C-alpha cells in the first residue's frame, strides 16, 4: 500500500475513493459509484483527515488550479494550516488567510500520492496541491473556489448542524427539520440547511432503520430525534471505515438494508424493496424503501 493516501501515518487502507495513483488510470474512468464511494458526510470527513495528514503544516511547492476562475492563483510558498469538513464541503485553510473550498458532489475525490508521481490522466484533475513529500489531486471536483478564510461563512454558513462536526447539535437539527412540517421527511433529510452530511445512501438506510416512509410529511413523524440520532450513529460508525456498512456486515453486497437493493427482498420482511425518485436536485433523488417496514402513516 505504498500509494495509499493514508500512508503518511501508515494507517487505513487504499480503498474507498482513492485508488492507488501513479498507475495512470485510463481517461474517463472515475471512481466506481458504489455504496462505498459516493461522497456523503463520512467520505468527506475522511477526505479531510487524509488531506490533513499529507498537507498540514507543510509548505506548498505547487498549486495548480485547473478551473477558469482561479487559473492564475498561486499558493506556492504558503503552508497549509488544516482541512476541515463541513457537511459535504471541504475547507483547506492556508497561510495568509486563504481558504480553498472544494465539493466532491457525486463522483469527486482527492487522490493523494507521493510528490512527483504521475497525476490521473484524462483531464479529470481540477486542482493539485503539493509539498515536497505529497501531492493531492482533486479529481472531478464539482466545485473549486479560493476565498478569504473570513468569507467561509458565506460558503457554509447556511448549513445545518454537521452530523460529524464537533459542534453537532441534535436539538438544533430537529428544530430545523420541523420548520417545514409539510415537506416529506425524505426531502428534508437531504436539505443540508437542516442538517449537513446526509446523501441518498444514509437517507435510505436511516429511514429504513427508523421504520418511516420517506414520503411521510415531517409533521407526521412522531420522533424526529430518533431519526436524526440514527443518522448520526450510522455516519459516526462509518467515519473511519474504508468500507461503508449500515448493517454491520462488511461482506460485499451485505452492507445496506435497502440502498442498492431495489427490487430485491427486504432483509426484514421479505417483500420487494421499492424505488422511486424524490426531490428536485437532479443528482440526489433516488429513493429506495420498503413499503411494509416503512409505512407512510404512523402506526398506532
Ligand atoms: Zn420490509
TrEMBL record:
It comes from the Bacteria. Residues 39-128 form the Formamidopyrimidine-DNA glycosylase catalytic domain. Keywords: DNA damage, DNA repair, DNA-binding, Glycosidase, Hydrolase, Lyase, Metal-binding, Multifunctional enzyme, Zinc, Zinc-finger. It holds the Pfam family Fapy_DNA_glyco. Residues 257-295 form the FPG-type domain. Residues 1-38 are annotated as: Disordered. Its EC number is 4.2.99.18. It catalyses: 2'-deoxyribonucleotide-(2'-deoxyribose 5'-phosphate)-2'-deoxyribonucleotide-DNA = a 3'-end 2'-deoxyribonucleotide-(2,3-dehydro-2,3-deoxyribose 5'-phosphate)-DNA + a 5'-end 5'-phospho-2'-deoxyribonucleoside-DNA + H(+). Belongs to the FPG family. This is DNA-(apurinic or apyrimidinic site) lyase. The lineage of its organism: Bacteria, Bacillati, Actinomycetota, Actinomycetes, Streptosporangiales.
